Amino acid sequence: MLRDKITETFVKVDDFCNEFEILYSKHQLPAPSNVKTRNRKAGMCDSEIITLLIAFHGGQFRNFKHFYVDYVSVHLREDFPGLVSYNRFIELSHRCAIAFMLFLHHCCKGECTGISFIDSTVLRVCHNKRIKRNKTFKGFAEVGKSSMGWFFGFKLHLIINDKGEILSFFLTKGNVDDRDAKTITNMTKDLFGKLFGDKGYISKALSDLLFGNGIQLITA
């Protein structure tokens, strides 16, 4: 991603984050009086962190560490004067998850053209041999099965248009079926026309449901 494009992205993200912080602070519960809170400065604001996460996907780097260490730290230090180490950046990125998700949902989705594609991918929490010992997502992640076998984690469901633009996305537990009516209904409420999917979406009930909402499901 070119530097001018990174600057343009930052401006959009920063405007959104400023509005998000105002709304978030109004609904945030006050901390108990007997609990000490740390006000350590992070070095990088949420807008900068989200901008770099977006910029990574606009480049040709195979992994984020390579992008951050070999490109951002070398060529973009003037644009991000508060740049932190790679490990520290990964720690800070967790706090931006909600703001990043809302930014994608409200500011980055494309428009339905009448031709859409749906698919899902697994998000593994750990290796299958360590499922019983995993505590990080206990109570949230679930055991599921994909075309590649069993896994423990979540599923990311995604719909794009014929231009490759994201129309809708949804995160579920790993044991949720791709044809789950509630998930599909939420994802397709603003769609029309034809929706293409693989054989994992073959279901007469789902086809009838979508057809009633003006969508023709085509599976292969």
Automatic annotation (TrEMBL):
NCBIfam families given in the database record: transpos_IS982
Domain Transposase DDE: 109-219
UniProt name for this protein: Transposase
Organism: Aphanizomenon flos-aquae LD13
Lineage: Bacteria, Bacillati, Cyanobacteriota, Cyanophyceae, Nostocales
InterPro entries for the chain: Tnp_DDE_dom
Domain of life: Bacteria
Entries under Pfam families matching the protein: DDE_Tnp_1_3
